[in-house]
User: Which sequence fits this backbone?
């Protein structure tokens, strides 16, 4: 319940705004790297709250409401990054751009994010006040702010973990090359290929700890399906039917052969699974969607005739409507610049705005039920691109060369809006619990979203030049995979006459349908373990070595729960994992930021090995595995110590 005060302490102060903007940009850059690397982003509200408490205390105070403003704006770093990386790299993958165009990315991300804030304004009262949805990340952030946990201790944990994560990146293949990026083992069994491997990334271990064992199992199971079942079957029974691929693999080792088969064929199983997962997301949420929209509009109408307390004041609906018009006009101009036809640009802009509001409502509702980390934004975006592609095909023709590009731009705006809307409601839940003023938070999140948009194109270009994005090339044979953006490009291109292995995609659809049925059965039985189809689909699409450390991180989280005596108690688990989550966030942030820093000398010199030490100092996989195990042990010890302290 909120705690209104007769006179609210300062909230939207200059120092809070500046600190929030700086943190938002840093966290956006870190989540950009992580999302392109592993297809996942992490919520950033709690680390931002801890940093805020420590920094504002050093500056002389810092009320809980001022700290809340900082974490509100800073949390835009994860939502804007997710909205952009799930979609915008598709424009490069499709060949429409050779690099990331600054003003285009700024417009798509900035305006999409601000629209997400505006779309979420009428939903606050309905979802937070009337329906009292959980909004788990918002609740956790509020508890951290209210507890005022020793911010100096929290900063030490974050700093130590960030240093460890950064060190893990520095010594790996893109840095000093003391150890490789992964440890993999493969061999031939007849014509079949046996393969097992793990990436040695501390960040992926941290991701696994944050998402937990259930998601870790589902993700790695998807990869095992691809790498230990589908690839051996394909290499044994179907490779000879693909003479071009068979010729390319002649004489290749087992690891290289498995990677080539996955890249050329098997990853499209994941495309099919994501496709059915996105459609199922829309079908399963239809009641929630209508409920969210209806109650939001009712709240907006009721709010216009009421005098409300400071702790219940949203942005005025008149200002929201004016903002929608003002921010839609440049998007309409941008869209017309692509299609060069008012008969296409005007109706598609309207579809963009309507879809943005509908799916922002879905995103906000789902964030309230299952949290932002499990919010199926990528599924929502797939549905948007599918619908937009069908309408565009009718307006422009099914072979229109600009059709895929036009569909991706609509998906990008909607994705940014939906991601920000879900995040905004989490922040407003935290504010509701501590007595903050909603309109101030809404303004701060809009500022945070616009700030993040400023840095997205430079970060994307830096990463693309240093590591490559999406498509392997001779210069970048192992690029950042950008799995969701690659999927969006494949879907849009396939619906406009592109050549795709539709037989494998349809098999993936069948696999996804089977996973959905399994999940529904588990749901009806009230099982604690679930099989969310989009998590499984991401696993099917990703290389096995990226999902193994995610599983191991989830296993560590489970072992921490066992060590602290907590089992099947979500509230208690949330409390005992606080220090472990903070340490994991540090691992992720440190590795991601150092990955961006390392990219600078690589781009400047034009050499991928610019930082590499002499070859006699390259210690190989066993040393890398040992270092990875030590980092995992440290994470476990820190998390257990924090868990035992919180439960005592």
Assistant:
């Amino acid at each position: 319940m909120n705690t209104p005060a007769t006179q609210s302490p300062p909230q939207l102060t200059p120092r809070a705004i500046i600190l929030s903007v700086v943190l938002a940009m840093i966290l956006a850059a870190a989540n950009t790297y992580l999302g392109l690397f592993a297809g996942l982003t992490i919520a950033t509200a709690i680390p931002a709250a801890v940093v805020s408490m420590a920094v504002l205390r050093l500056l002389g105070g810092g009320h809980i409401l001022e700290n809340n403003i900082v974490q509100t704006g800073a949390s835009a770093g994860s939502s804007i990054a997710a909205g952009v990386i799930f979609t915008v790299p598709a424009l490069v993958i499709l060949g429409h751009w050779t690099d990331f165009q600054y003003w285009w990315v700024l417009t798509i991300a900035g305006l999409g994010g601000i629209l997400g804030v505006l779309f979420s304004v009428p939903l606050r009262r309905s979802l937070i006040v009337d329906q009292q949805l959980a909004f788990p990340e918002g609740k956790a952030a509020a508890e951290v702010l209210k507890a005022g946990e020793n911010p100096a201790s929290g900063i030490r944990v974050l700093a130590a973990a960030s240093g460890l994560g950064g060190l893990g990146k520095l010594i790996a293949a893109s840095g000093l090359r003391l150890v490789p990026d992964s440890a993999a083992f493969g061999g031939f069994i007849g014509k079949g290929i046996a393969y097992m491997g793990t990436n040695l990334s501390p960040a992926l271990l941290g991701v696994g700890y944050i998402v937990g064992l259930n998601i870790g199992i589902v993700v790695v199971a998807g990869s095992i399906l691809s790498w230990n079942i589908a690839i051996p079957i394909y290499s044994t029974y179907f490779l000879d039917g693909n003479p071009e691929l068979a010729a390319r693999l002649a004489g290749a080792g087992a690891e290289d052969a498995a990677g080539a088969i996955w890249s050329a064929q098997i990853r499209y199983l994941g495309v099919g699974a994501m496709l059915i997962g996105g459609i199922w997301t829309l079908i399963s949420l239809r009641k929630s969607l209508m409920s969210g929209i209806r109650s939001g509009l009712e709240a907006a109408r009721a709010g216009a005739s009421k005098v409300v307390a400071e702790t219940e004041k949203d942005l005025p609906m008149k200002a929201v409507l004016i903002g929608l018009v003002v921010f839609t006009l440049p998007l309409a101009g941008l869209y017309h610049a692509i299609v060069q036809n008012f008969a296409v640009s005007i109706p598609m802009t309207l579809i963009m705005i309507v879809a943005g509001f509908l799916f922002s409502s879905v995103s906000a509702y789902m964030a309230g039920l299952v949290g932002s980390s499990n919010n199926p934004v990528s599924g929502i975006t797939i549905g948007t691109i599918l619908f937009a592609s069908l309408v565009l095909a009718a307006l422009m023709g099914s072979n229109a060369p600009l059709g895929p590009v036009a569909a991706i731009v609509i998906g990008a705006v909607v994705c940014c809006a939906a991601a920000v809307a879900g995040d905004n409601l989490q922040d407003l839940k935290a504010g509701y619990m501590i007595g903050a003023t909603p309109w101030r938070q809404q303004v701060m999140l809009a500022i945070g979203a616009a700030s993040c948009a400023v840095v997205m194109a430079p970060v994307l270009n830096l990463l693309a030049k240093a590591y490559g994005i999406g498509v392997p090339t001779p210069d970048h044979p192992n690029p950042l995979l950008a799995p969701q953006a690659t999927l969006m490009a494949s879907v849009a291109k396939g619906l406009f006459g592109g050549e795709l292995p539709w037989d494998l995609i349809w098999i993936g659809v069948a696999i996804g349908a089977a996973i959905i049925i399994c999940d529904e059965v588990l749901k009806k039985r009230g099982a604690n373990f679930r099989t969310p189809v989009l998590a499984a689909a991401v696993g099917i699409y990703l290389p096995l070595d990226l999902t193994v450390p995610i599983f191991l991180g989830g296993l560590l989280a489970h072992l921490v729960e066992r060590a602290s005596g907590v089992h099947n108690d979500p509230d208690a688990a949330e409390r005992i994992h606080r220090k472990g989550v903070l340490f994991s966030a540090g691992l992720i942030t440190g590795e991601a930021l150092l990955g961006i820093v390392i990219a600078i000398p690589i781009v400047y010199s034009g050499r991928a090995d610019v930082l590499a030490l002499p070859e006699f100092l390259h210690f190989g996989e066993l040393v890398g595995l040992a270092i990875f195990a030590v980092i995992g042990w440290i994470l476990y010890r820190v998390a257990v110590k924090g868990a035992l302290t919180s439960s005592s």
About this structure: The radius of gyration is 24 Å. Confidence is low (pLDDT under 50) at residues 1-6. The longest strand covers residues 182-189. Residues 139 and 430 are 6 Å apart (CA to CA).
